[in-house]
Design brief:
heterodimer; A: 249 residues; alpha/beta; Alpha-Beta Plaits; 5-stranded parallel β-sheet; 10 helices; B: Cytochrome-c3 Hydrogenase, chain B; 2 domains; 4-stranded antiparallel β-sheet; 18% strand
Chain lengths: 249, 499
């Protein structure tokens, strides 16, 4: 008993005090910025990208990007630079595309636009059901980390619940395998209205590294409206929590 | 000659591999099993419109791999099952049957493995799995999944119970099947990114296995410093997951103190990986040809200090936890898997060592820098949840010692190139077997190349493939409420099985 209390005192308070201003290691690959001044049009970045996230004229689609950093390393002119800016969630698919004139401020200003209705209904409490549909366990582990003592997402009224019937929406991870497609739709239909859909990670948003597999089946995403996109491979807890907070506030 | 003998990461020519008839091969396998060999590969592929079955046995004492094969004629649709004599083949034979439709006659449990996209019987649906049925007035079934209560991958568990007591658990997997092997086979470039996503909790393990295989095929020797950094990364991954598991086990017995403290301590380790390579799971670090990021003296110092703190915190928390009678009473004699059963079904990795088996491929089939290292296998005999918990604690301590030792060696290799670029192409008709001991256990990657310098078959076996059945056996005669605890003590991968 005393040992337990001593451990508790020794550990102190582990929670990140201000989650919106949390500092992340500078090595972290968050929002990529493109400066085409010196670009020699060698196309190294395009050919090295494993998910075809980079387009000619230079734009990077964060919905496809797995943040491997290969393009940055292969670029002879430092045209692509990953920054440690982690607030990269967005409510629109188009907004996830970063162009050569995109700045951190510009990205931030347009990334999240949510409705008054969502703020009113879910602003103070949001319960979500997570469905892994082919997720490799990377995004799943980071979603679990959101509720650990460091990130402590519960303090903002956001929780992951066991039953879709108790949920205000679903979080999807993974590229949606054919074998999981029915169960995913069942879970969504079991969630009472009004409800949101949140796509977490490159696999869910675009199929990611698995998009050319014929074992995946993504027509669920065409049927229903997606409310929030959280890019990453896997997502970082700070990206997820801050994305939700901006979505709800 | 009935077998060709190879080693971990040694390239052999496909033409050298003996081709027997299936009955001959079956007898040979049974003969080899009498001298402690163990199956690590059993898979088919289509060659010249015939189906050829490759078998790889490991000789753990001699660090050797025995390879042989059998070719099936067009009309040959069955053979006498090996599982009847050697239970460890049960899942391998099911997998071969699912993909090629050649029936292991007399197999006691011939059911789907993962509802693979290239299954021979396309009419089979994942919804129609033939579950085992038990009958009796007091017997009832509990069905769980594919979607579980927490943030966890999908799989279906069917418990056959009498009251609280589990008679039998049947585990149906396949929901995570993404066609990983075909993606490797259809690619004309190196795919380390795909290897990183085979199972996201074993990024380093699988990517090292993949890179070792490719480097062997293109005959590339990476620098010593890259090898050292790969060891550091692999052991950091082991430490991180093991600490996370101690937290998860604490959580499942409502020991919230442990859950919180181990969770916070794990964060220190994965943030160390972040400061090395920009990803908390080591993504982007391992590439064919070496590693992408350096560990300089300053970073080595920081890592070393972090590890000291982690070791202190883990020791402190584990001591407190293990001295609590209410903790021990939940862990001891729960989910016991005997050594005989573990050996019989071919358990591998940390769970096998907790049941008293002496299996650790870092020592049995060393690769890279592990060839220069000396340490002992951590083995516990009791096979219960407590054994699987304590072995994690032991391995955390052992891995931290290993990492600190390797960190001190880094500066001797300051001038090494981290990532070697090469234009070497894959060999014609070659085969390589790459084994890595991930935190969960043995990872086996096998690559076969065709006569156009491309990979025509890429076979992956995660430790989970061997171990899921071990979980099913361990919960027999336990209370159903102890299932989550047993499950966490194995911590198996769904996508590592489903691929």
């Amino acid at each position: 008993m005393f040992d337990t209390l001593k451990s508790r005192i020794y550990q102190g308070n582990q929670a990140i005090p201000d989650i919106e201003k949390a500092v992340i290691d500078e090595k972290f690959r968050g929002l990529p910025l493109i400066s085409t001044h010196n670009c020699s049009n060698c196309s190294n970045c395009i050919s090295v990208c494993p998910t075809n996230a980079i387009n000619h004229g230079l734009s990077i689609d964060l919905g496809k990007c797995i943040f491997c950093g290969d393009c940055e390393r292969e670029c002879p002119t430092n045209t692509i630079k990953f920054t440690d800016f982690y607030k990269i969630s967005s409510t629109s698919r188009e907004n996830l595309i970063v162009y050569s004139n995109t700045t951190q401020e510009a990205y931030k200003a347009t990334a999240i636009k949510s409705s008054e209705q969502i703020k009113k209904i879910f602003g103070r409490s949001l319960k979500l059901r997570q469905v892994s549909a082919g997720g490799c366990n990377g995004c799943e582990m980071e979603l679990n980390a959101c509720s650990n003592v460091n990130f402590d997402m519960g303090r903002f009224g956001i929780d992951i619940v066991a039953s879709p019937r108790h949920a205000d929406g679903i979080i999807i991870t993974g590229p949606i395998t054919e074998n999981m497609a029915t169960a995913l739709e069942d879970a969504y239909l079991s969630t009472p209205d009004p409800k949101v859909i949140i796509l977490v990670g490159a696999c869910a948003i675009s199929g990611g590294i698995f998009k050319n597999s014929d074992a995946i089946k993504r027509d669920f995403l065409e049927k229903y409206k997606i409310d929030l996109y959280i890019p990453g491979c896997p997502i970082h807890p700070l990206t997820f929590i801050n994305g939700l907070l901006s979505f709800l506030k | 000659m009935k077998w060709i003998i190879s080693k971990n990461n040694q390239v052999i020519s496909l033409n050298e591999i003996p081709i027997l008839n299936i009955n001959g091969l079956r007898n040979e396998i049974i003969k080899q099993y009498r001298t402690q060999k163990r199956v690590i590969g059993f898979f088919g592929c289509v060659e010249y419109s015939n189906i050829r079955l490759y078998v790889i046995l490991a000789d753990d004492k001699k660090s050797e791999l025995l390879i042989s094969s059998a070719r099936f004629a067009a009309g040959e649709k069955s053979y006498p099952s090996i599982t009847k004599d050697i239970p460890a083949f049960h899942l391998f034979e099911r997998e071969f049957y699912e993909e090629f439709g050649i029936e292991p006659f007399g197999h006691p449990w011939l059911k789907p493995v993962r509802h693979s996209k290239n299954k021979f019987d396309k009419t089979q649906k994942i919804e129609n799995y033939p579950f085992f049925k038990m009958e009796g007035e007091e017997v009832h079934e509990v069905a769980v999944g594919p979607i579980h209560a927490g943030i966890i991958e999908p799989g279906h568990f069917r418990f056959m119970c009498n009251g609280e007591k589990v008679y039998h658990l049947e585990i149906q997997l396949g929901y995570q099947h993404r066609g990983v092997e075909f993606l490797f086979e259809n690619s004309n470039r190196f795919m380390p990114h795909l290897a990183e996503s085979i199972t996201g909790d074993t990024v380093i393990g699988h990517t090292v296995a993949y890179s070792n295989a490719m480097e062997a095929l293109i005959n590339l020797k990476i620098s010593d410093k890259s090898e050292l950094i790969r060891v550091i990364a692999l052991e950091l991954e082991r430490v991180a997951v093991h600490i996370g598991d101690l937290g998860a086990i604490s959580n499942d017995i409502a020991y919230i103190m442990g859950s919180s403290v181990f969770g916070a301590t794990r964060t220190l380790i994965i943030n160390t990986l972040l400061s090395i390579c920009g990803s908390r799971f080591g993504r982007g670090l391992i590439r064919v040809g070496g590693v992408t990021c350096d560990i300089d003296n300053k970073l080595a110092e920081i890592i070393s200090t972090t590890l000291d703190k982690v070791l202190k915190d883990v020791e402190r928390m584990t001591d407190t936890m293990f001295s609590s009678a209410s903790v021990i009473s939940r862990l001891e004699k729960t989910g016991t898997l005997s050594k005989e059963k573990a050996q019989g079904i071919g358990l591998v990795g940390i769970s096998s060592r907790a049941s008293g088996l002496s299996l650790d491929t870092r020592i049995d089939h060393p690769w890279g820098w592990y060839k220069n290292m000396f340490f002992d296998k951590e083995i516990i005999e009791s096979g219960d949840v407590f054994a699987r918990t304590s072995i994690r604690y032991k391995e955390i301590k052992q891995s931290i010692i290993i990492i600190k030792e390797i960190l001190s060696q880094l500066q001797n290799h300051d001038n090494d190139v981290l990532l070697i670029e090469t234009k070497n192409s894959l060999p014609v008709n070659g085969m390589v077997i790459s084994i890595v001991e991930g935190w969960r256990g043995e990872i086996v990657h096998v690559a076969l190349t065709n006569n156009e310098n491309g990979i025509f078959r890429y076979k992956i076996k995660d430790a989970s493939f061997n171990n899921w059945y071990g979980l099913a056996l361990s919960v027999r005669n336990n209370g159903i409420s102890d299932f989550p605890l047993c499950n966490k003590s194995f911590n198996l991968s769904y996508c590592g099985n489903d691929l």
